[in-house]
Structure formats: C-alpha cells, structure tokens
Amino acid sequence: MTGETITVLIADDHPVYRDGLASLLEPLPGIEVVARAADGIEAVEQARVTQPDVVIMDLQMPRLNGIEATRQVLAELPHTGVLVITMGEDESTVFTAVTAGARGYLLKGADAEEVIQAIRTVHNGGVVFGASLAQRIARVFATGPSARAPEAFPQLSDREREILDLVAAGLSNPDIAARLYLSPKTVRNNVSAILAKLQARDRSAAIIRAREAGLGRASS
C-alpha cells in the first residue's frame, strides 16, 4: 500500500554482508531495518521483539541454523515473510528452506534491485526465487517429496521410521510415547538410534533431513 513502511530484520553471521545490506536498505524510502542478528537464536529473539514484516535469513549460522530459525520465527509470527539469502543453491537446500516456510530464496550474488524487489514481493504475500534457481525449484516440486518418502532412510527399521515421522511433525518424546503406546525410554532409545544411523548431530538436524524427505506430515 502507498506510504507503507516495510520493517526488515537481517540475520547473517558475516558482519560485512549483514552491515552492507543494512547500509543498502536503510536509505530507501518505505523500508526500515529494525534489527540485525548474527546467529539463528538471536534472529528468533530479535524477531520476537521487533515483529518485522520481512526477515532476511542466512542459512549457515552458528548456534541455530537458518532453517530452524525460520521455523521458529514463523511458528510465533506466521504473517512474517522470510527471504532466504545464502550461498547454497543445491536442490535439497532450496527444498528444505521452502518447506520450512521461506517465501523467497536468493543467492548472495543477487544485485541490489533484485533483493529490494524480493523484499517487497515477499511482504506482499508473493513468492520469489532468483532466476538461477527457477529450474531447480521446478524440478524439485515436479518430483515432489511424497514420491521420495517411501524410499527414504532404508537404514531405519519400520518403527524407527515411524518415530522419525512423528519427530519431524514436531512431537516430543512423551507425545510420541503416548501416540504409539510405548514407554518413554523406548522412544528415547529409538531416537538415539535414529540420530546415529542418520549421522545427525542432533534432533534438529534429523528433523531437517526428515522433512526434506517428505516426513512429518502425519501429526494429527
């Protein structure tokens, strides 16, 4: 709308890029940089305080990666638009960012006008991807996660895959135990085995991989 100011939070662990982007955006009419964050946890905290219209989110950040930070921000602020700007452009990274709720995905090589237009598009409820990513996006969604899900993680047992599906849906260990009529200890042991088999460093990393494979949709 005319006269509307778009508030923006910039989350990136590289100060040169973070501050440079802020310097680019701050003089522009209609855009206000309300906060900057150097890692994922700070991004979530700053988003909670400032409630920005758009979060510009890097993916590779310390303490909490951009994917999990995106999920946490959108869980609390579902009307905030997340625009990912990162170095990575492989299909799995793009797909994971999209399934986390990002509405835009640009590479850090994008020019200033492309970034500005992406911020406005995301704020207006649109979805935007850089030109170099268009074919990758089309290919990922043409095959679709559901087609790959039954083949995912053949190293897991049926029970472990069932538990991973519920973990990816956001259920806690006690919730999973109640859902599957298992003891909490059994669930805990299975989760530990899943992390080991997937070589996932923690629960969040396992969730990312599971959602990328199409799991986590059967929470109800």
Automatic annotation (TrEMBL):
PROSITE patterns: HTH_LUXR_1, HTH_LUXR_2, RESPONSE_REGULATORY
UniProtKB keywords: DNA-binding, Phosphoprotein
All copies of domain Response regulatory, residue ranges: 7-123
GO molecular function: DNA binding
Cross-referenced Pfam families: GerE, Response_reg
Modified residues (4-aspartylphosphate): 58
Signal peptide: none
Domain HTH luxR-type: from-to ranges: 149-214
InterPro entries: CheY-like_superfamily, NreC/VraR/RcsB-like_REC, Sig_transdc_resp-reg_C-effctor, Sig_transdc_resp-reg_receiver, Tscrpt_reg_LuxR_C, WalR-like
Domain of life, per lineage: Bacteria
One GO term of the biological process aspect: regulation of DNA-templated transcription
Name listed for the protein in its UniProt record: Two-component system response regulator
Species, as recorded: Microlunatus phosphovorus (strain ATCC 700054 / DSM 10555 / JCM 9379 / NBRC 101784 / NCIMB 13414 / VKM Ac-1990 / NM-1)
Organism taxonomic ancestry: Bacteria, Bacillati, Actinomycetota, Actinomycetes, Propionibacteriales
